[in-house]
Amino acid sequence: MTDVVLSCTKISKAFGALQASKDVSLDLQAGEIHALIGPNGAGKSTLIRQISGAMKPDRGTVHFLGHDVTRLSAIERARLGLGRSFQISSVIPDFTVLQNVALAVLGDEGNSFHFFRDLLKGRPTVERAETCIARVGLEDRRAVRAADLAHGERRRLEIATALALEPRAFLLDEPMAGMGAEGASEMTRLLDTLRHEAPILLIEHDMDAVFALANRISVLVYGEIIATGTSDEIRSNAEVRRAYLGEEETA
Amino acid sequence: MTIILLIEQVLNGLQFGVMLFLMAAGLTLVFGVMGLINLAHGSLYMVGAFAAAAVAGATGSFLLAMAAALGAAAIAGVIVEMLVIRRLYDRDHLDQVLATFALILIFSEGTRWIFGSFPLYLNIPPYLSGPITLPGDIQYPLYRLVIIGVGLLVAAGLFLLISRTRLGIRIRAGESDREMIAALGVNISVLYTIVFALGAALAGLAGALVGAIQSVQVGMGEPVLILAFVVIVIGGIGSITGALVGSLLVGLTDTLGRTLLPVLFGTFMEASAATTVGAAIASMLIYILMAVVLIFRPTGLYGAR
Amino acid sequence: MNKLGKIALAGVAALWAGTALADGVKVGMITTLSGGGAGLGIDVRDGFLLAVKQSGNSDIEVVVEDDQRKPEIAVQLADKMIQSEKVDVLTGIIWSNLAMAVVPSATAQGKFYLSPNAGPSQLAGEGCHENYFNVAWQNDNLHEGAGAYAKDAGFKNTFILAPNYPAGTDALAGYKRFYEGELAGEVYTKLGQTDYAAEIAQIRASGADSVFFFLPGGMGISFLKQYSDSGIDLPVVGPAFSFDQGILQAVGDAALGIKNTSQWSKDIDNPANNAFVESFQAEYGRLPSLYASQGFDTANLLLSAMGKADIDDADAFRAALKEADFDSVRGDFEFGPNNHPIQDIYVREVIKEGDVLTNKIVGVALEDRGDAYAEKCKM
Amino acid sequence: MMRREQILNGAVLLGLIAVPLWAWSSGEPFIITLATKVAVLGLAGVGLNIALGTGGLVSLGHAAFFGIGGYAMGILASHAQQYVPLFEWPLLVEGTKSMPVIWLVAIVFSGLAALLIGALSLRTSGVYFIMITLAFAQMLYYFAISWPAYGGEDGMAIYVRNSFPGLNTLDPIQFFAITFVILCMTLWFNARLVRSPFGTALAAARQNAERVEAVGIDPYKLRLAAFVISGMITGLAGALFADLNRFVSPTMFGWHLSGELIVFVILGGTGRLLGPVVGAAIFITLEHVLGGISEYWQIFLGVLLLGVVLVARGGVIAVIAGKGVAHD
Predict the structure, then answer these.
(1) What percent of chain D has pLDDT over 90?
(2) Per-residue confidence (pLDDT) for residue C9, from 0 to 100
(3) Of chain C's two ends, which shows fewer C-beta atoms within 10 Å, N or C?
(4) Based on the structure, what is the number of domains in chain A?
(5) Best of A112, A113, A132, A159 to disrupt the D interface by mutation (most D CBs within 10 Å)?
(6) Size of interface B-D (CB pairs under 8 A)
């Protein structure tokens, strides 16, 4: 439990009067899935944007693989190996599955400034992309435009894209959102194997999946982490129960 | 350069800026509410000037001419909005640029077809013509003061309209959320037509006011259009305050640049070279201003970030 | 031009096309018929075609094209007329920059070019050509006339302004060539500028005793309206361009009484001019302008040469043109060594005839004026 | 759908070469000139299309690069014409009448200008980008008008077309051949570019910039590179256009030209390989045909453009070859 891959220390962020993150400290250790849960509007997405670099915190630091990355942009963090998938499905709609993943491989290879060679004829690139596509089970759909994929398929494409970056840590923002029961369990299996590749910071509303997968869970309420612990610890935490079930208890 | 001359030039800059504001207000409103880039805004300015010249020629009344300019531009605005513009709201800027570029061609050549190739006559009415003496013994044309007055009145009226009236509330709502106000039962397409006609009428008024001291001719709208775009981009697109500040900034920069730069260059250059170089830099000045503003504030002075 | 006139014109053109003779002359007219400045091109064309029509000469065929005031288009039209239409003579261009784009290569290909309006200094000096004849003026002429008038009128301290482009700098140079007083100020404005408040304020503050300006087209209209409203009552002098028939009604009473210089005026009393003014009005229903007179003279020069020589004999035809043996509506007219006019420059004053603003001649600024560049021309 | 577009592309290029050949054989040199104009303006549009179609950068200032290319030709050729060196210090630089040298200079300088303008303009986006590019072009326009050394508003006439080794450039058909070959080479380059890693990333950045950042690629750099390439091609077209007319003037910097280039791209089909060429061909044909019918031909042009925007969405190529822009 000493191998910390990603950590943030006392992150704060305010939008005017709204305190979106308040002294948040959080870490992600090798081999684990660390789930971040919380009611709507708790500031989960704001937090993950600060970790990915899309937004700068007002105070606090972010460390990744031992580097202080607080001042680095999203692009630079991505190059260090911080792989992110998005809450709102954001693949490139006009690209095929293969192109989408190949783009990520390209980003990982670090040189997109080739003007002449055909991307889809570059053998190593395509092979890597296809491996990732196969891992999420989309090999039959590789020539389909992302916009034409079913919702669950698009989610898996996201994961394939994140895989292609060969990240040292995953940031996954609601990968199960909008999936049917079957899709969700398939995704759960996939994530379960992924954690050995790189640890996962998972934001998810599907509590079944969270409790089945997560090694640790942190609960974010009004921008503050009120509890961190194993599934059992969280289930029995009084403050968490109050936050989630508060109204029922008083009723 | 004396202080009196400087004050006079500041007044000139102010008047130029106020005139630009009349153009820019409509442009920025249409962009803010409907998200539309309207290159044909300058054509509505031209329509106003031609309508005013035609009516003034027929009736001899300047006030009637102004009313005609407002009316004609508003009507032209409504027609264009209903036939063309409303089909463009959901399109990207590229389609809007192309379609309104096409409208410029149609308006310009159509006007030439109706009114011929020669400039029309429109003049200041006798009761507004000639200079008056301001405190400090400054001689200044009354008509230009009237333009400044009308422009400031329109600005005040627009601020009241936006902040105090039901229409204004809807306009502001339309800027932030189209579906929402549609859901609230406001007829959005009527609202859009009204906003567009309002912008058109302001452009027409500007054209008529300016037509009396400039040349009423085909193509008169294009240079003003580009300036109005410079204004709203500097001010921040969609912001009336930005349009006002941007207008005055552009008006003053252009006027003072024209007069001060050649003098400035004259301090270290040979006189006739200073005149030409100064004039050359002065003609580029507002574009330089715009580029500098955008480099430091990529969405303009009052633009949404 | 009204629609009826246009239909008639198309008919005439069709007629000519049908009767092209083996040794006829084919004329390519490239002029500005659309967009800003179209009025000038239309006048040149109408004046030219009127002369052709009056001559009754069926050996001449005219092809008219619109250059949209764009130099690229003018160049392409010239290519078209030379390559496809196989014209013998080109004419019609209004603007100096378009002339500079077209004329040198046309004359280099052995075509004649007769200029009905533009006379840039390069084409009068080092860039002159034996096949290039200017029937209007060298660009500086009217400004020189204005300078000469200013000297005669005893102006001592003039404020001068023009747009910041070559014709503008040439204009001020031309004025200064004959003017002998001091300059109260010299200002270059932005090309296409419409508001002159800043310049007018400078004029007011400068202590000038007179103003000279060259601001063609809409720029001049704007300047004059704003100047007259400013309450400054210094005398103004300028070239005829801002006081010409097509533009004067738009300037309005602001122009009344202003002296301007021109090589032509509708009240020049000679038979050719009287007939021209009358027949132009009868044909087109408006008073002829300076540009119409230049178009008319250009056609008559060409017709006079056609009567003397065959176009296929270029040397003879050139000599015939050079003789300038036609009745110019402006009175005496001959070509200098560089094929530019030697002519009188008149001073006109803007007056009102009934409701119509027009000009009358009040004096002569320069007599038998050639131009300043002729000695640089080596033909 | 892709197949149909490829067939159409082939047909367009074949048409573009067949028309002048026919005109050549039947002694209609002006038609060749028109075809050359299509090739050159199409080339400028192909340049713009890289920024606009692939990169999604709506530049209303590409006249800046077109004009720089034109002036590169004008300045070099006028110095060569007058036997006056450009400058003698720190090293002697003479003018030249050699097309390849002129092209190189045009490409380098328009590329440098695009680098500078792009680096500043790409800090903005949307309408602001449209307007700031326009602002830079207007600056150059007014500069060119009031810069007396090279003709100011009068521009510069170069009386004899510049030379190309082994060819007589004054012969319309030979000059057409030069422009056509350059156009084809550029199209080939463009086709490669779109499928290259760079082109893929650029197209991705157009559709979803945040995604591109998330995979560790900087969209700003992609766009800047695209803008520079785009400017260089448009600059080359400017040099050719100047040679076509043997004349350069500030109107090459005018915003009408920027607008026309956009019209070519949209008319043919944004992002289509041959879109700008088709657009230019239609536009120039219309200008030629309508211009002969009526003084007020621009009204018809306006109505037609309006029709394309409102009805024929996606441009002419989309109407003929179908909507989808395929990527593999």
Answers:
(1) 56
(2) 44
(3) C
(4) 2
(5) A112
(6) 129
